[in-house]
Design brief:
CATH architecture of the largest domain: 3-Layer(aba) Sandwich
Catalytic activity: tRNA(Trp) + L-tryptophan + ATP = L-tryptophyl-tRNA(Trp) + AMP + diphosphate + H(+)
Radius of gyration: 24 Å
Number of helices: 17
Distance between the termini: 46 Å
Number of strands: 5
Protein name: Tryptophan--tRNA ligase
CATH superfamily of the largest domain: HUPs
Pfam families: tRNA-synt_1b
Number of domains: 2
Helix content: 55-70%
Bound molecules: tryptophan
Largest sheet: 3 strands, parallel
Family: Belongs to the class-I aminoacyl-tRNA synthetase family.
EC number: 6.1.1.2
CATH class of the largest domain: Alpha Beta
Strand content: 5-15%
């Protein structure tokens, strides 16, 4: 069986370093591993509209931002198919058939949907499209017969829901769909990078993100103002590493080489942590180190972004080409699905002959 990757992001804002360690970096590694037959990366504009119905302009503006972030991280349109969800009408059609295989109570139990309903104050008036987006996400994944979906931890319930739909479809109509596996980040800090304010998640509305497109000055300013251990008041005080964003970021980003290069008094992160916990290590020193580490990681991304920014029409062209290629694949799957469901009436000669017999 072919090894196929599909994943994507809602274009509701620029991507930040949480997206980067949580999934973008891994995608580029997977892409460059050469182990996958096909890689589809989707800008999920239709899904973004499920909770932004009254603000389509936000989605429209952010498609290019996400595309630029993808390309600047090293996603390569000659190796990965980058496309826009709403350009693939087959996804909507698949969703419509999958809806019959999912119950309302099953959707109500989906932990991610539950959490998002609370977060958006949708309790009393949930848009139907939003409520059913896990079904549309199953269409996204299955349309491309994806075998692997690299995502953040919050997407686990979506993949589980997809697997259930696949099993149900295949058992009711016959094998047509592929059950995907999920691939989560392997480092705990990468699973959910906290905001610069120490809150559990980076989020634009909390204003606690470091964006991939931030200038070096912005990044430095954000790092120097980062949340650490509120009880670590003087350098001599023992500090806490747990729940200290600066150390969580170092867990996610620092490598042994960084110590050699920028902080050679220490061999590794563990030594730095031990010193911090013992007392005598100031926040500023740790933050300056984090700044160097992060700048090194972000610099090539920034440079690539500058290149692509010079030719924005070409970026749209990349998405157009990708969408055309993606549509072909989705169309094949849809045809397959309709054949299995026996709703391919006009190509079903058995059906036509059988009906003709009946009326002879
Ligand atoms: N739900 C994902 C997010 O919020 C975006 C997404 C849409 C997606 N369709 C997908 C991710 C299919 C993986 C596979 O980030």
């Amino acid at each position: 069986m072919s090894k196929i990757i599909l994943t994507g992001d809602r274009p509701t804002g620029k991507l930040h370093v949480g997206h980067y360690v949580g999934s973008l970096k891994r995608r580029v590694e997977l892409q460059n591993s050469g182990e996958y037959d096909k890689i589809f990366i989707m800008i999920a504009d239709a899904q973004a509209l499920t909770d932004n119905a009254d603000n389509p302009e936000k989605i429209r503006q952010n498609i290019i931002e996400v595309a630029l972030d993808y390309l600047s991280c090293g996603l390569d349109p000659t190796k990965s198919t980058l496309f826009i969800q709403s350009m693939i009408p087959q996804l909507t059609e698949l969703s419509f058939y999958y809806m019959n295989l999912v119950t309302v109570s099953r959707l109500q139990r989906n932990p991610t949907v539950k959490a998002e309903i609370l977060m958006r104050n949708f309790e009393t008036s949930i848009p139907v499209g939003f409520f059913t987006y896990p079904i549309s996400q199953a269409a996204d994944i299955t349309a491309f017969k994806a075998t692997l979906v690299p995502v953040g931890e919050d997407q686990l319930p979506m993949i589980e829901q997809t697997r259930e739909i696949v099993r149900k479809f295949n058992s009711v109509y016959g094998e047509a769909l592929v059950e995907p596996d999920v691939l989560l980040p392997d480092n705990k800090a990468c699973l959910r990078l906290p905001g610069t304010d120490g809150k559990s998640k980076m989020s634009k509305s909390l204003n606690n993100c470091i964006y991939l497109s931030d200038t070096p000055e912005d990044v430095k300013k954000k790092i120097m103002g980062m949340y650490t251990d509120p009880d670590h008041l003087r350098v001599e005080d023992p500090g806490k590493v747990e729940g200290n964003s600066v150390f969580t970021y170092l867990d996610a980003f620092s490598k042994p080489e960084h110590f050699e290069r920028y902080l050679s008094d220490y061999n590794c992160l563990e030594e730095l942590k031990v010193h911090y916990m013992r007392g005598g290590l100031g926040d500023v020193k740790v933050k300056k180190f984090l700044n160097l580490v992060l700048q090194e990681e972000l610099e090539p991304i920034r440079l690539r972004r500058k290149e692509y920014e010079k030719d924005i029409p070409e970026v749209y062209n990349i998405l157009k080409k990708g969408s055309e290629a993606a549509e072909k694949v989705a169309a094949e799957t849809l045809a397959d699905v309709k054949r299995k469901m026996k709703i391919n009436y006009f190509e079903d000669m058995d059906l036509i002959n059988e009906q003709a017999q009946k009326y002879r």
